[in-house]
Design brief:
Chain lengths: 477, 432, 460
């Protein structure tokens, strides 16, 4: 890294907003995933203009740029794979405007997801996308990854709740796309940008939809003695046309683990539980809860329990949302996969995961969004054991291939990032990549922004090539 | 696959660090991350730094020491952590290493040595210091100092505001006494009076005894008790903490008590972890474990026992600030709220971000004054938004900090310990 | 041999003679305004679509994709209109996993035919668009026309989960997938929604399907003033009650609607006859839900001192709902030279519909207005008689409405207008800062500008 760039960044932002020592940079080489990538300098912009100026500087020095929020991502989307300048948006964390009547909020990208809800809940509103990291993750990161969560089933992913964005393009130009009502004229650029994993533009302002709290929420916990019964229950609920607000499955083995640490009230001796939630008009929630109860029992649920009150409900959800972290208790590291399958294939998929795990010598936990077919198999391993680590990665790939073979997809909410970019060829053809690359280049022609993500980089040559001016190598190899 | 083997002993092992999956769920719960948004000042970042230090990748130098010093040890991250990382223990270990391996500036060394090794372990020295301070406050010197602007010149203005008001009578006089239960005896408890609280919270301690006895408890204040050692342990001065623990074990294991009760959440969480100060094979371990298991925060104890005394109406809008070492250290959230709600006339309103530290954190407001004041400003902003007349909390340190905040910000809010609220309800005086 | 005939012959060489239409009688049906293509091609598979596009790209031809052509007149005149690419022959359901509630369907399939298949499984795709009887799936999505169920189910953006299409280089591409939750790769299919066929020839669309509600009902509430009607609308939208639509319309719209319904027979919707403002609400779901909604609307109407009220059950609800859904279609045929402007504004816009016209009464034309619950407004200007001075006045008004409707975050565009109006107005409203990006996106999809050149925003 050219010291002149660091010098100029400090002059631009003040020394308190620039980190460049090795000790500091070591803390930005990781996120919530198993990937790594160290930036050469970390900067904290406060305004859109700051961002544009930083981009200009980076361009002058021809170094890559990557944006980062809270660094809770699970596919390495906010890691500096090609080194360069990392823009941390955590200090752009103001809620700029609340339009409660029209259910909109205008926020900076560093605002923490849950803080939006905290700011509007007094008016009976909330921000619907609820990734498990919502207490820490930023809305900017949610936009980049098109994050989902347990309640995606009924309320959609982040993209369904974002209506406008302010962007800083890789050439430092500032552009607004979409509009407040979500009804702008022309191409739906906002729809393209959400989920583009920071490879098209840096997002500096976001207009989000706020959702009205339902009149009644009912949370049910159904306990099963066989995994097959639980997955058949999910398939039947779906087939019967009931769309719960959330439908989560946790397998018995992982339940026992999390219950030991979280005491959320889950059984310790079941094969699987379903955490189901219905909401809406009182009449709708009640009749759906009754129908779900009936389906669960018809599928041999040992027990179906309804959360007594908000506190009980919060506890069950806390258990669910913290489940992943609790797995940390079992092994030094865990690899959370994120695949999608058609919901009708759920029983089959779970069996296949079990088989794959058994033959690879891993016991695989499953805590996932069953209602929309979004699997999260968890592989536990010790990263110090290189052979085991390699085996974990290979097993993960096998599971993702299985999802695709069932008519599913590579990722339901974590994003492709640098985790699955090589697997993209399972789904996409050369023509698909060509078009995606042309769209990429329409925004980010030099690959200066977040290089090495989404697109396969080692296609045909088995070598990772990233960074600026390597476009040709990346695509045409 | 390897099962996790946590030692929680004196030296953490790889597994204690690797429990952290760097998921980042702790970030927004950390007061210092909320202030500065720096990984280095977040729990995840601090754990990373500690691991790098353990692995020899990072030296114990100024940067590391600064980030570890800035940690409030409020353990809010432990509440947020899904992997149950034992952050408090890790940071104390890091501090112990810093204490042993890092040479602080001369002034800091002298001060730390004085406070942790020469002052806190000796009640008579605390009393002496208190008398000097009281002379400063009562003689007019304080008024003079404030008016002269000399404090501002010495950049001590804010710190001076945080000085506890020294009581005219010290609680030391009550040590060794036993107070009979009013009405039929429902329990026998030992009261842990604390150290500095003896000279600054005489009224609170007396109120605690009144509330306990009014609810059928026979209260003994065992002789020979000392500072719990929390401040020393948190600062990494482990030898001093162990010595204090030994003396307290002797004082509290002599009598037959149902519980050892404290009104200081910081002391409570240290007492409850006394057995962590000793190795299994050490002779003190068994006694430490017994004391740990008997220790109760006064709110926890009273909520569990149930209020039997007649409470009269106290008409007030009240909000509650969680004391970190009660909520995060001891996982007690409901008990103090339950007690407040039990007082007729009290309208309890939730304080936004009540779970975030007020910046008091033991001696943090003295050692890291700027950060502490920023946290306090934010805290008082939220407290004002509740339009509460009284801010209740459950720890003397928090009381001092919040009182200073109310004074600095002129919020016109009274700051009381939950027990003081109950005491007020016993006599039935209406709030202002 | 004319150029046209020559082109047709060469296209026959590409896809076979049975797939090419070249007679003037046949081509009249593909006219945009008064412009005919040189040939129309009806490919039978996506490979043939690729062939045609590759041919067109090589020959620098302009290709306009179409389905049933019910919305072919939207947008501007094409700069080059050589080939009409009629996708109606691509009309199969490729994949329907009813237990997963996902569907993959060819773009040329008619919505009505699709609905029948889905209804047999008690499911549907919530595209309640005008010209429902003839519209194709692809046209409904690519035209960006509003669905009457938007308030409840959102736009296609919310339930289109993937697509296959032929880009401007003549290669079949895809994005998304067939699962309900997916973040793999760029959401390219979202760009196709409302793109008016300027990016690609869509061959297949993947949707998430929804269960058909158990039952449904509606209500019609009449008001004597716009203020009272707007206040009531505001109350309902702010109530959090799950309406499937909340449509407010003025007296002029009411009488046109009444006339339209009367073409069947006199159905006697009292609030429509009474004139003034009316508000139509519809709701669907379980019996208990509909019962609750009925009482909510009835009680709230009574409290709001409505002038008239009618609960609409089954057939009557269907009649009125269908007529409202089709309003774009019958409005444009209600007179010669009708102009329909679509304005998008805040859901709770308080200024009311008068905002759009400083002088709403004119001797030359009448205006009719429909405000949907999602915040979109359809304003139709119906000329009394066509003459030069009337035209001038009309044009002034249209320009004023577009100008007013395009302020701040609001947008306004011409949904329907005679050629002479379009020629003198900004059909798509004003260009904004993001136009540069749209041009780049267009170039990425369609570097040779094969698809509908000049028809969309900024003449893209």
């Amino acid at each position: 890294m050219d010291p002149a760039l660091i010098h100029e960044l400090k002059a631009l932002l003040g020394p308190a907003n620039v980190l460049s020592t090795r000790e500091d940079l070591m803390l930005y080489e990781f996120d919530g995933s198993v990937e790594k990538g160290r930036p050469d300098v970390v900067v904290f912009p406060h305004t859109t203009e700051d961002v544009a100026r930083i981009v200009k500087l980076a361009n002058r020095f021809a170094v890559p740029i990557v944006g980062r929020g809270a660094g809770t991502g699970l596919s390495g989307g906010a890691l500096a794979r090609g080194g360069g300048v990392m823009l941390v948006f955590a200090r752009m964390n103001r809620i700029l405007e609340l339009d409660l009547e029209n259910c909109r909020a205008v926020v900076q990208p560093g605002v923490v997801n849950l803080e939006i809800t905290r700011a509007v809940e007094h008016a009976g509103l909330y921000f619907a996308p609820d990734p498990s990291s919502q207490k820490s993750c930023t809305i900017g990161g949610n936009v980049a990854e098109n994050s989902g969560g347990p309640h995606t089933l009924a309320s959609g992913l982040t993209t369904n709740h974002v209506t406008a964005l302010e962007l800083v393009l890789p050439d430092a130009e500032i552009v607004r796309v979409g509009n407040r009502h979500g009804d702008s004229t022309g191409y739906d650029l906002c729809g393209l940008l959400v989920g583009s994993e920071g490879t098209l533009a840096l997002v500096t302002e976001i207009t989000v939809k706020l959702t009205r709290k339902a009149e009644l929420v009912k949370t049910l916990l159904a306990v099963f003695d066989a995994v097959g019964d639980a997955s058949r229950t999910v398939a039947e609920i779906t087939a019967r046309g009931i769309t719960p607000a959330a439908c989560e499955m946790l397998d018995g083995w992982t339940l026992a683990v999390i219950e030991n640490y979280l005491r959320a009230g889950f059984p310790r001796d079941s094969a699987a539980v379903l955490l189901l939630e219905v909401e809406g008009l009182r009449e709708a929630a009640e009749s759906q809860a009754a129908a779900i109860d009936e389906i669960c029992r018809a599928n041999h649920a040992r027990e179906v329990r309804t959360a007594r009150d908000a506190q009980d409900r919060d506890l069950l959800w806390k258990g669910r949302k913290n489940a992943l972290g609790a797995m940390g208790r079992l092994a030094p590291s865990n690899y959370v996969l994120d695949g999608v399958i058609p919901r009708s294939k759920l029983p089959e998929a779970l069996e296949r995961i079990h088989e794959i795990g058994t033959s690879a010598g891993f016991r695989i936990g499953n805590i996932f969004h069953a209602g929309d077919g979004n699997l999260h198999p968890i592989i536990l391993f010790d990263p110090r054991d290189k052979e085991q680590f390699a085996r974990a990665i290979a097993t993960a790939e096998q599971i993702i291939r299985m999802c695709v073979s069932l008519g599913g997809s590579l990722t339901g909410e974590h994003g492709v990032g640098m985790e699955k970019n090589e697997l993209m060829t399972l789904l996409f053809s050369d023509a698909d990549f060509d078009l995606m690359r042309r769209i990429h280049d329409a925004f980010n022609p030099d690959s200066s922004l977040n290089p090495g993500k989404i697109f396969p980089v080692s296609k045909g040559c088995g070598e990772i090539r990233v960074g600026r001016h390597s476009k040709t190598a990346e695509t045409r190899a | 696959m390897q099962k996790h083997t946590s030692t929680l002993g004196e030296v953490p092992v790889y597994e204690d660090f690797s429990l952290c999956t760097h998921c980042g769920l702790c970030l927004n719960h950390c007061p210092t991350y909320r202030l500065w948004q720096l990984e280095a000042d977040s729990p995840r970042g601090r754990i990373r730094q500690m691991l790098l230090v353990e692995e020899g990748e990072l030296p114990i130098a100024d940067g590391f020491v600064r980030h570890i010093d800035r940690c409030l040890d409020c353990r809010s991250c432990e509440t947020a952590c899904p992997s149950a990382v034992n952050y408090g223990k890790l940071v104390e270990h890091a501090r112990a290493r810093i204490e042993n391996e890092y040479r602080r500036p001369w002034m800091a060394r002298v001060m730390r040595n004085f406070v942790y090794r020469r002052l806190l372990p000796y009640p008579e020295r605390i009393a002496m210091a208190a008398r000097l301070l009281r002379f400063y406050q009562a003689s007019g010197l304080q008024v003079l100092a404030r008016a002269s602007g000399i404090l501002r010149m010495l950049r001590l203005a804010e710190r001076e505001q945080l000085l506890p008001r020294i009581d005219r009578r010290f609680f030391f006089d009550q040590v060794g006494k036993t107070f009979p239960a009013k009405g039929p005896r429902r329990a026998r408890v030992a009261f842990f009076a604390g150290c500095v609280a003896n000279v600054t919270f005489t009224a609170l301690n007396e109120a605690t005894i009144r509330v306990l006895t009014a609810n059928g408890c026979e209260v003994t204040v065992p002789d020979g008790q000392f500072c719990c050692g929390a401040l020393a342990a948190h600062a990494g001065v482990r030898d001093s903490a162990r010595e204090l623990a030994r003396r307290n074990l002797a004082a509290f294991t002599s009598g037959e008590f149902d519980a050892v009760v404290t009104n200081a959440a910081g002391c409570g969480s240290t007492l409850k972890e006394y057995h962590h100060l000793f190795r299994h094979e050490e002779p003190e371990f068994a006694g430490a474990l017994t004391l740990a298991e008997k220790s109760r925060d006064v709110t926890e104890f009273l909520a569990g026992l149930g209020i039997s005394a007649q409470l009269r109406e106290v008409t007030a809008r009240v909000t509650y600030q969680d004391s970190c070492h009660l909520l995060h250290g001891q996982k007690i959230r409901e008990a103090p709220r339950q007690l407040l709600r039990a007082i007729p006339g009290v309208e309890l309103v939730e304080l936004p971000y009540a779970e975030i530290c007020c910046g008091s954190a033991g001696v943090y407001n003295v050692t890291e004054t700027r950060a502490s004041m920023e946290l306090l400003a934010e805290k008082m902003r939220h407290a004002q938004s509740t339009r509460a007349q009284i801010i209740a909390t459950a720890n003397p340190g928090c009381l001092l900090q919040l009182r200073a905040g109310a004074e600095l910000r002129k919020t016109n809010q009274e700051v009381l310990h939950v027990v003081e609220m109950l005491d007020r309800a016993l006599s039935g005086s209406a709030a202002t | 041999m004319t150029i046209a005939a020559n082109l047709a012959a060469r296209l026959e060489g590409v896809v076979g003679s049975s797939r090419v239409l070249a007679s003037e009688a046949e081509l009249l049906g593909y006219a945009i305004e008064d412009c005919l293509p040189a040939a129309a091609v009806r490919p039978s598979c996506s490979e043939e679509v690729c062939e045609v596009v590759r041919f067109a790209a090589a020959e620098k031809l302009g290709v306009v994709c179409c389905g049933s052509r019910s919305k072919l007149q939207m947008g501007m005149q094409a700069q080059r209109y050589d080939v009409a690419l009629d996708l109606c022959a691509l009309a199969q359901i490729a994949h329907y996993d009813e237990a997963d509630l996902t569907l993959s369907v060819d773009a040329g399939m008619r919505l009505e035919a699709l609905s029948k298949v889905l209804a047999a499984k008690r499911q549907f795709v919530p595209l309640a668009v005008p010209c429902l009887a003839t519209s194709t799936v692809g046209g409904s999505v690519v035209s960006g026309i509003d669905s009457m169920l938007r308030l409840q189910y959102g736009t296609a953006r919310d339930f289109l989960v993937g697509a296959e299409f032929v880009d401007g280089t003549g290669r079949t591409c895809k994005s998304g997938g067939r699962v309900v939750k997916n973040v793999t790769g760029y959401d390219i299919h979202k760009l196709l929604i409302g793109s008016l066929g300027t990016l690609a020839a869509i061959t297949r669309l993947n949707f998430r399907t929804f269960p058909l509600p158990e039952t449904s009902a509606g209500a019609l509430t009449g008001f004597s003033s716009a203020e009272a009607a707007l206040a009531f609308r505001r109350e309902l939208l702010g109530s959090g009650l799950p309406f499937s639509c909340v449509e407010l319309f003025d007296g002029q719209f009411s009488s046109l609607l009444d006339g339209e319904l009367g073409r069947l027979k006199d159905l006697g919707f009292a609030p429509l006859k009474a004139g003034g403002w009316s508000l139509y609400t519809a709701f669907a779901g379980e019996e208990a839900v509909v019962r609750r909604m009925k009482s909510e609307v009835e009680n709230r109407s009574a409290r709001a001192a409505a002038k008239s009220f009618e609960m609409l059950e089954e057939q009557r609800n269907e009649w009125l709902g269908d007529a409202l859904r089709e309003s774009f279609d019958w409005l444009r045929h209600a007179a010669r030279g009708v102009v329909i402007v679509r304005i998008s504004q805040k859901q709770f816009a308080t200024q009311g519909p008068k905002l759009f016209l400083s002088n709403p009464s004119s001797s030359g034309w009448r205006s009719a207005l429909l405000m949907s619950g999602s915040g979109t407004v359809m304003l139709a200007l119906l000329p009394e008689e066509e003459n030069e001075s009337g035209r001038e006045e009309m044009l002034c008004s249209v320009r004023e409405i577009l100008a007013q409707g395009n302020t701040g975050e609001n947008t306004a565009k011409l949904l329907h207008a005679p050629a002479w109006v379009k020629a003198h107005c900004n059909v798509w409203g004003d260009l904004r800062g993001d136009f540069l990006l749209m041009q780049r996106v267009k170039a990425a999809f369609d570097p040779a500008r094969v698809f509908s050149p000049g028809r969309f925003v900024g003449g893209i």
